[in-house]
Each structure stands twice: as C-alpha cells, then as structure tokens.
Structure prediction request, 295 residues.
Amino acid sequence: MLLPSFEFHEPLSIKDALELKKNLGENAKLLAGGTDLLVHLKKKLVTTKNLISLSRIKALSQITKEDDAIVIGACTTMAQLSSSPVIQEKFAALKSGCDNLGTHLIRNRATIGGNACNASPAGDTLCALLVYDAMAILESSDKKREIPVADFFIGPGKSCIQKDEILTGFRLPIPPENSGAHYIQLGKRKSSEINVVNVASFLEYDPGTGKVITTRIALGSVAATPIRSPKAEESLVGQTPEEASFFAAGEMARREDCRPIDDFRGTAGYRQAMVGVLTKRTLATAYERAKGASQ
Ligand SMILES: Cc1cc2nc3c(=O)[nH]c(=O)nc-3n(C[C@H](O)[C@H](O)[C@H](O)COP(=O)(O)OP(=O)(O)OC[C@H]3O[C@@H](n4cnc5c(N)ncnc54)[C@H](O)[C@@H]3O)c2cc1C
Prediction:
C-alpha cells in the first residue's frame, strides 16, 4: 500500500504551524509520529493535500517542570516519557501506559498528543491522563485555552479540538505526598494489540486517619470515550484502603459506571467483569505506592 501524494510542510515553531493551519484550513492535516495518520492515509480512510509535520518544533517535545505541575509537550514520544526521571518518579501510571503502547519501533515515534487526538476509547495513555487530572493545552493563532482532559474526548475518534487549533501539550499537577497510581491494560496479546479493557487508578490517603482522601479511577475500552468512574470513586472516599473497599469500588465501576459493547475482541459481559477485577488491582497497587511515598 503506497501513500498518496501530498505537500509536506515542516514548520519550526508553533506560531508558524498555526499560521499554516489557518491558511491551509480543511486542506491540511497535522502529523506527529504518523503511527495512526500514515496508516489511515495508506488505507484511504483519510485524504489530504497537505501534511503539516510538528516533529521539528522543539517546544512540542519537551517535558517542563513548573512549581506544582509538569507540562508535557504534545509531540513527546512514548519512549521519551518512559525514560524521563520525573515520569518514572511521579507518574508511574503514565509510564505504564507508555510502556504498554505498541512495540519499541512504535514507541519511538508515537506521541502523547497523537494518542489523545486519535481519541480511541482504548488509547494507552488516556486513562493515566484522566487520573492525574491533566489539562489539555490548545492553541490557535489568536487564543490559548486549557481544558480538563475529561472534556477533551467527545466520541470514538473525536475530540473537542477546533479546526484552527493545535494541541500543544498537557499540564499535570505533581501528585501530593501519600498518593500513588497504577495502570493495567488487558489485551488478547501482550503488545501491539488494541486493549479489551484498560484501567488506571489514583489514590491519596491520610496517614493520620488511615482513610482515603481522594481517588480517581479511569476506565478505557468500555464506553465511547475513556471515562472516569464517579460511583466507584465516591464509594472509596473516607474508607479504609483495604481489600474490601477496593473490591466494593470495583463492583461500583463494573455495575454502575461502565457501558461496554460486544465486539470481536470481547463480550460486554467479559469487559464488565474485567473492569471490576482491574479496578480492584490498580487500587491495591496505587495504595502500595502511596504507602511507599515514592510515587
Ligand atoms: C503497529 C501499531 C501498534 C499500535 N499499538 C497501540 C497500542 O498498543 N496502544 C495505543 O494506544 N495505540 C496504539 N497504536 C496507535 C498509535 O501508535 C497511537 O495512537 C499514537 O500515540 C499516535 O501518535 P502519533 O504521534 O503517531 O499520531 P499521528 O498518527 O501523527 O496523529 C494521529 C492523529 O492526531 C492528530 N494530531 C497529532 N498530533 C496532534 C496535535 N499536536 N494537535 C492536533 N492534532 C494532532 C493527527 O492529525 C491525526 O489525526 C498503534 C499503532 C500501530 C501502527
């Protein structure tokens, strides 16, 4: 399968990329790592006369520390994220998501922004972005806005990004002391497989009372977009973090919060059952990490 012909543009700054996007309008697509877009172009699922490559814009592939947050540039690759000390130390669930995405070759190209803009309900970094309360940073030539990642996804393959905007990055608050997170994906094979179910959990507890203060749980592949699991989260706040309360949260996620469908990868019933299991397991590991206070 050959790629169709197109004009290739390589701006060196966000400003120039936005200008090109504005001028070329509907006739252009943004290219990051190309691991989704080039496949879609080859299969003729997408057509375009112009590709605007973002990969030479240095500001888009950096991880920057701020006082109480980090900003991850949209073109940061999975491999870069996995080897970043701050991601390893503070954002273990995101690191797991990056490590589980595709193969080495794919992880060297695939970007976090491309994963989000592809907006698959099964995307491997998206549950982690949800549980770390990430903000998506969107820029056009005349404005910059930040929205919660939970509002970024609006349907399978659809995000709220406007025609004149580029996703420039994500802002993630540094997780507090006594918190931890974990991510597990379940596929039919270990790698290069679309997930059947994927779950991330974040948990913060108060070492004084021993109770859970905050929890965020995100479910992938069980709804039209990656989703938070509000009933499961509510059920855990104020509880003692232990097997029984993790099991109860898993039951809430399974019974109340997910809306899976049957497809050739798995039945809705199987997905629902696995949501319960993975929610409980991710919470247990998140708590272990919180106690270790290393995450
Ligand atoms: C063999 C193979 C295995 C894979 N395995 C997995 C897997 O296990 N898990 C998983 O989640 N995914 C997987 N994928 C899918 C893909 O690798 C990821 O979704 C990847 O993160 C996409 O990033 P990219 O940089 O390659 O995006 P691209 O293909 O460059 O772009 C994807 C889409 O996002 C848009 N876009 C990209 N960047 C921006 C931006 N900054 N602003 C606005 N729009 C933008 C593009 O226009 C395009 O529509 C796999 C793909 C392949 C080919």
